[in-house]
Amino acid sequence: MRSLGTLSLFNAPVLYLLWFTKQEVESLLLSGPEEVKAAYGESVTISCHYNQMYRDHTKYWCKGRVYGTCTIVVKTPKNRLSKRSFIADDKDAGVFTVTMTSLRDSDNDKYWCVIARPGKNVFTGVRLRISHTASHMVTTTISPTTSLPAMAQSETSWWAFLRWIFFILMLCCLAATHVIAWRLKTARKIWQNRQIQCQNSNIYD
Length: 205
Description:
- It is built from two helices and nine strands.
- The chain is of the alpha+beta class.
- Strand 6 (85-90) and strand 7 form a beta hairpin.
- Helix 1 (2-29) packs antiparallel against helix 2.
- The longest helix is centred in the last third of the chain and has 58 residues, at 147-204.
- The radius of gyration is 26 Å and the shape is elongated.
- Mean pLDDT is 75; it is low at 16-25 and 134-156.
């Protein structure tokens, strides 16, 4: 029973470490702002940054609270027909941008930056919130070439920094778990050896 407890203590950080590593790798493949605010009736441009290994892959903008059931709004390379949404892919910069015009209340939803690839697509969520405040607010008229990419890169860098801190902490926890498990095992062996010595001593006495 003790060995099972020690094994569980060891598996917990290992499983989390594997999950965290997977999340970190995916964040390096595709990233975008977690939330964007825009004014009703105005336009908004959202940038999704991707790894150059996907420069020739199809990218698309998908709408829906859950990725698995979302509806494609626009996609590359043919720019799927949409009256109010447009997509452009800058392969050299490694970023595709989506512009939504004449924003409505129905546009207030969860969206997904998606890169199509064999097996499992790469995707990241973006929450779009529509506001009825003054239309000249900065967040409704984000420049597609300056403001939004800067915001996205800043936010991505910040979260990447936090994720690496957690990653290092998990490595420390994993190392500590190994040390504790080793000490418990060593202490158990010492105790067993002492028990054997005591038994042998009693026999000879």
